Amino acid sequence: MPQYYCKSIATTHHTQVPDGMLEWVVIGGGVHGTHLSHVLTTGKGVARDRVCVLDREAEPLAVFWQYTAATGMTHMRSVGVHHLDLHPYSLLDFHKRSRGRHGGFIPPYDRPRLSLFRAHSRHVTEKHGLDALRVMAAATSVERTPSGFRVETSRGPLQTRRVVLALGASDEIAIPTWAPTPDWHVFHPAFSTTHLAAGQRVAIIGGGISAAQVALDLNRRGLQVSIIARHAPREHQFDSDAGWLGPRHMAAFAASPLHERRAQIDRARHRGSIPRDLTRALRRAARAGTIDWLEGEIARVTADASFELELTESRRSLRVDQVVLATGFARRRPGGALVDRLIDDLGLPCSACGFPLPRDTLEWAPGLYVTGSLAELRLGPSARNIAGARAAGERLMQSTCNNS
Ligand SMILES: Cc1cc2nc3c(=O)[nH]c(=O)nc-3n(C[C@H](O)[C@H](O)[C@H](O)COP(=O)(O)OP(=O)(O)OC[C@H]3O[C@@H](n4cnc5c(N)ncnc54)[C@H](O)[C@@H]3O)c2cc1C
């Protein structure tokens, strides 16, 4: 038995890469990679010792927990059927069985409390031994071999017949050029607000859900918050219309020419939008005078004991104790040099926007699969979300690739 699969239901990751030929290597063990490893082993019945999830992080979904903790968000934006398990009602059943111990749902659309989603994720990974599939290592390159692929990692090479790229976007946080340091970004691993005390002032740059969540979180701690955004609050429940989760919009999308799909995704995605419960909370805080929303962009930032921000056009300036960048992710293709080299070496098809043009099965080349934003020209505007992971899982389930 390979060393990395040493317990049936293990809770720890493994430090050695497995020897011998694997069936599937999933690069990235976040929401997408973890769900797909469940689909492969539990859903498709691929032998567990032939599947490996490579991730730089020890814990499944570590990046997602980091992001959600940094924003202070209390509830998921997505609904209760979007989770890691295979059966759509798994989270609901778990909630009932645990008698609400981990928190419940809020309207509209019964969105789970983050603590419930987290407890359920832990339950699924433990029950199905998904931790035991993980090897904590960074993949640095993927090369074609006669029998599949060779994946170079920070802990040595792996041989596999198939690869799934489930890389997420954590390397692609968007830092404005005027910002002196990336760790002001709410998704930077070194980001922190723990040193701030009640009564201090914070400026949050960005007008989307993360800006709103951080603002409300800091406000609960008694801080005075200014949100600086390019636009007024844009209220949308989800980051794209729910019709994109089914045939209502996806049928036309799937029938449309591939070169038109980037524009459709851009039109469909409500970038920088905020669900109603949060816009209401922002309005309440605005009435109480503890959060204000300023439209503008930053022209200059001057740092001494605190920070002076000068806004464009209005030439208004603001003195704050901390600046928080809630500026989201860059729009470029994720995967950096690893994906760039794969495209060059294998001559992989890309759209004019630089993103992959995989087949309907999500195969970008024979045996090379994509999920998340790398699959969005097939899966549509919700590809990056948990719904996108589930849609990718359905395509893997349907794919006729043999499992041995
Ligand atoms: C604050 C926030 C809240 C969100 N809330 C929701 C929500 O409520 N509902 C919803 O549907 N979506 C939500 N999303 C969107 C989306 O579901 C998450 O961003 C989710 O984390 C995406 O999962 P992922 O697996 O693609 O990426 P990630 O969670 O980023 O995981 C990718 C993993 O791959 C690893 N990795 C990358 N490159 C390599 C490499 N070369 N070698 C080894 N490992 C590598 C990374 O370390 C990481 O662990 C939210 C996003 C954010 C930022």
CATH homologous superfamily descriptor of the largest domain: FAD/NAD(P)-binding domain
Q: Which value, in Å, is the CA radius of gyration? A: 22 Å
CATH class categorisation of the largest domain: Alpha Beta
Number of strands: 19
- Write the CATH architecture name of the largest domain: 3-Layer(bba) Sandwich
User: Whole-number average pLDDT?
Assistant: 94
Share of helix among residues? 25-40%
**Most strands sheet:** 8 strands, mixed
Number of helices: 11
In terms of structural class, how would the helical and strand content be classed? alpha/beta
Q: State the order of secondary-structure elements, H for helix, E for strand.
A: EHEHHEEHEEEEEHEEHHEHEEEEEHEEHH
Strand content: 15-25%
Shape: globular
Instruction: List the domain count as a whole number.
Output: 2
Distance between the termini: 16 Å
Give a verbal description of the structure.
The protein is α/β, with parallel strands linked by helices and 404 residues long. The chain has two domains: 21-171 and 331-398, 3-Layer(bba) Sandwich (FAD/NAD(P)-binding domain), CATH 3.50.50.60; 174-237 and 275-325, FAD/NAD(P)-binding domain. It has helices spanning 31-43, 62-71, 90-97, 114-127, 209-220, 247-255, 261-268, 276-288, 336-346, 376-379, 386-398, and strands spanning 21-27, 51-55, 105-106, 111-112, 134-136, 139-145, 148-153, 158-165, 201-205, 224-229, 234-235, 273-274, 291-295, 298-303, 307-311, 317-320, 322-325, 363-365, 368-370. Strands 1, 2, 5, 6, 7, 8, 18 and 19 form an eight-stranded mixed sheet that branches. Helix 1 (31-43) links the parallel strand 1 and strand 2 (51-55). Helix 1 runs parallel beside helix 11 (386-398) and helix 5 packs across helix 8. The longest helix is centred in the N-terminal third of the chain and has 14 residues, at 114-127. Mean pLDDT is 94; it is low at 1-11. The site of flavin-adenine dinucleotide has 34 residues, from helix 1, strand 2, helix 2 and helix 11.
